[in-house]
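FW: tagging you since you asked about this chain on Friday. Here's the raw sequence from the shared folder, copied in full. Didn't touch anything.
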Amino acid sequence: MKTIYLLLLLFLFSFSLSAQDKPLHGKVYGNKPGAAIVDADKLESYLGERSRKETTIKGKVLNVVKEKGGWFTIDAGNGKTIAAHFAKYDVEIPAGLKGCTVVVEGIVQRQSALTSQQPLAGEKQASDKTTNKLSIEVTGLMVE
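HL: got it, structure written out here
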């Protein structure tokens, strides 16, 4: 009788260990994305003149910056990146997400910043250049 319990216990333990090695394919974090998908490398032209828009994008994860809170970067092509983070901080993403293609839904925002500091407000120097970076506040992510 003890051997049956022991075998059952070993079986359950080995099953729980194998369950941790699940592939990420099809895994959903947050809400499941479900809108028209735009490729990440075409996002800037899709935004046009708008500085903010709710959309769904598809791209490759370059780096998981912080697992808790879901901070990561997406390749936007031509050496550009999209900074991404979940709107809800309680979402945790695995570090193994790096290199995976994902579908991300959320609010994309263009952030403008001057490359040099202005000494006084409203004073602009000829050498000042404006850089545009994209970020997305994610509501849902699905691994393809």
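FW: The chain has a mean pLDDT of 80.
HL: agreed, and The chain has one domain: 24-143.
FW: great, closing this out.
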